[in-house]
């Protein structure tokens, strides 16, 4: 927040250069964040299935399941592709390196951080069958939680049941 405030003050005094570069860094961040969340959910569900677990063992499941995450990941990738196209061929300006990096600076930064992290920490790429699903997991009586939730859902009026199914 402080950097954003400093960039905003900079707009009043010097111009928009610092603000534009910070905006270039932050512009695609939500696409990378939500794309990563969708990819992690897909990988978790693949690992959950590969290790012999069922959805009945989970206290909470995504309403649209793994298909919702696939849909979200595809949309994020399409938005990144569209932004890449706009970065290469700006609508009103001539293509330039400055225009490209002001539109797509977050992508190389995220890629560089990811590669540096993989090299520095020497973390392997995981297969669904080798992902650790137990470390840090709270021991809960999942069956009891699921039974309580089902009983609560059955006690709801019909319109709340319909709303739950739709949302």
TrEMBL record:
Coiled-coil ranges from the UniProt annotation: none
Keywords: Amino-acid transport, Membrane, Transmembrane, Transmembrane helix, Transport
Main location: membrane
Spans traversing the lipid bilayer: 22-48, 60-86, 98-117
Protein topology in the membrane: Multi-pass membrane protein
Pfam families: AA_permease (PF00324)
InterPro entries for the chain: AA-permease/SLC12A_dom, APC_YAT
Gene Ontology molecular-function annotations: amino acid transmembrane transporter activity
A single cellular component GO annotation: membrane
Residue stretches making up the Amino acid permease/ SLC12A domain: 1-125
Protein's cellular compartments: Membrane
PANTHER family hit by this protein: AMINO ACID PERMEASE, GENERAL AMINO-ACID PERMEASE GAP1
Name of the molecule in the record: Amino acid permease/ SLC12A domain-containing protein
Protein's organism: Adineta steineri
């Amino acid at each position: 927040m402080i950097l954003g405030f400093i960039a905003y003050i900079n707009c009043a005094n010097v111009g928009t250069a610092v603000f534009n570069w910070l905006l270039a860094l932050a512009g695609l961040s939500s696409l990378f964040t939500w794309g990563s969340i969708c990819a992690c959910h897909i990988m978790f569900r693949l690992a959950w299935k590969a290790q012999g677990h069922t959805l009945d063992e989970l206290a909470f499941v995504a309403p649209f399941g793994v298909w919702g995450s696939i849909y979200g990941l595809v949309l994020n990738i399409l938005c990144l592709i569209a932004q890449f196209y706009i970065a290469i061929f700006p609508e009103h300006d001539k293509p330039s390196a400055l225009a490209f990096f002001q539109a797509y600076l977050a992508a190389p930064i995220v890629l560089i951080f990811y590669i540096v992290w993989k090299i520095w920490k020497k973390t392997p790429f995981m297969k669904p069958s080798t992902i650790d699903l137990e470390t840090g997991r709270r021991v809960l009586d999942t069956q009891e939680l699921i039974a309580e939730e089902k009983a609560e859902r059955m006690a709801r009026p019909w319109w709340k049941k319909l709303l739950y199914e739709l949302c």
